[in-house]
Amino acid sequence: MTESLLTATKLHKNFGGLPAVNQVSLTVAPGSITGLIGPNGAGKTTLFNLLAGSLRPDSGQVVFQNQPITHLPPHRVAQRGLVRTFQVARVFSRLSVLDNVLLAAPEQLGEQVWPLWFQAQRVAQQERQLRNTAMEILDSVGLAAKAQDYAGALSGGQRKLLEMARALMTRPQLILLDEPAAGVNPTLINQICDCIQRWHQAGLTFLIIEHNMDVIMSLCEQVWVLAAGKNLAVGTPTEIQTNPTVLTAYLGTGEE
Ligand SMILES: Nc1ncnc2c1ncn2[C@@H]1O[C@H](COP(=O)(O)OP(=O)(O)OP(=O)(O)O)[C@@H](O)[C@H]1O
């Protein structure tokens, strides 16, 4: 049996009596880049919300690193090493790019009153370390030159890179990326893919929702397919590309 970093078992979520996610199961192998695809409304984002704690399932379980996380709130899930980004990147527009990344750092001593009073030097040293780490991460996603710019001045694609940088700053094991290539120009899509591959080589695991099949097929080792809230198929990119059920339900619709 393959070892699993994340296991969702029979997750179920109704909205207004209708199932958005209907008894869905999924596994993510450690060190993998795993894809999650499906037509519009298939339940992909709802599933992400259930995995990352933004939504509570009506039933089913989520296990991460062999620990149940089903009913933990998002910040507790993030503390365990599982973070997500959003379809429309969420950044603080009026803060600098660097401050956006710094805000994502866990356990900052400066946020606690006592250390601030009694351990000023330690706080200053930690802040220097955090700034260095944040700059290294910004460099790795290609945004170092924009560190002092307002986040609001970034393009949509650059915001996605910034969101990824913020996720990386939490020192995760697994990042859930919600449509990293949506609305992004081809040059920046390549930059985002390079960035994912570099962090993957450094040991990070990714689960990626994406409508851009070239991105999914070039990055992912395994692809899960949802349709109408249910598991439809799972396999390698090649298996998925040639699976007639998938072609009918998804690729055959011409939706990208
Ligand atoms: N908060 C909500 N309240 C009611 N219905 C919702 C809510 N969120 C999602 N839905 C419904 O659940 C279903 C699944 O939506 P979801 O956004 O998870 O699909 P998706 O696969 O991510 O779609 P897309 O590819 O278009 O982003 C859809 O029918 C959607 O309208």
UniProtKB/TrEMBL annotation:
Keyword set for this entry? Answer: ATP-binding, Nucleotide-binding, Transport
Task: Output the Gene Ontology terms for molecular function.
Answer: ATP binding; ATP hydrolysis activity
Q: InterPro entries in the record, alphabetically?
A: AAA+_ATPase, ABC_AA/LPS_Transport, ABC_transporter-like_ATP-bd, ABC_transporter-like_CS, BCA_ABC_TP_C, P-loop_NTPase
Repeat listed as a keyword: no
The superkingdom of the source organism is: Bacteria
What residue stretches are annotated with the ABC transporter domain? 6-253
Q: Which SMART domains match?
A: AAA
Q: Does the keyword ATP-binding apply?
A: yes
Q: Record's Pfam families?
A: ABC_tran, BCA_ABC_TP_C
What cellular component GO annotations does this protein have? plasma membrane
> What is the official name of this protein in its record?
ABC transporter
